[in-house]
Amino acid sequence: MVYLGADHAGFELKESIKSHLEEKGIKYLDLGTDSLKSVDYPDYALKVAQKIKEGNEEDFGVLFCGTGIGMAIAANKIDGIRAAVVHDEYTAEVAKKHNKANIIALGGRTITPTEAIRYLDSFMSSKYEGGRHENRISKIDSMEKV
Ligand code: RB5
């Protein structure tokens, strides 16, 4: 399952990728927001992060705000969340392959819908590589207790 969350600045970008997910037969759950009315992005970061934390390995989230930055900062406060702002196909790919990201954050004011779809596809078609990265991910996990 793909969990989607946006504030007002990411709302339109969130809407624009839904039909792409539908075309690909990928199930998603939209956790809001549902309009351009101003809201606070941490509320939506928390909703999506909680779903990922409770869900299974295949689940991931896509968060949308003006830049992706605030969403990623907020989501990364939740244990078990590895949220990455991605700004091209390469960062989307390595966010999964190296960083085992379970959320990507996209900027409604920084990228176009076409770019968002390209980055999302790059993330979805990549696999976590494990190996040398596993020790690094374990170290990040242990920092949650600091
Ligand atoms: C909202 O105006 C904007 O600050 C927010 O969407 C986001 O860019 C924060 O990181």
Descriptive report:
The chain is of the alpha/beta class and 146 residues long. The protein has one domain (2-143): Ribose 5-phosphate Isomerase B, Chain: A. 46% of the residues lie in helices and 15% in strands. It has six helices and five strands; from the N terminus they run E-H-E-H-E-H-E-H-E-H-H. It has helices at residues 11-23, 41-54, 69-75, 89-97, 113-124, 132-143; strands spanning 2-6, 28-30, 60-65, 83-85, 103-107. It has a five-stranded parallel beta sheet, sandwiched between helices. Helix 4 (89-97) runs parallel beside helix 5. The protein is globular, with a radius of gyration of 14 Å. The mean pLDDT is 97. The structure holds D-ribose.
Can you tell me the CATH architecture? Answer: 3-Layer(aba) Sandwich
CATH class: Alpha Beta
Q: In one word, what is the shape?
A: globular
Q: First CA to last CA: what distance?
A: 31 Å
Q: How many beta strands in the DSSP annotation?
A: 5
Tally of alpha and pi helices: 6
**Helix/strand class:** alpha/beta
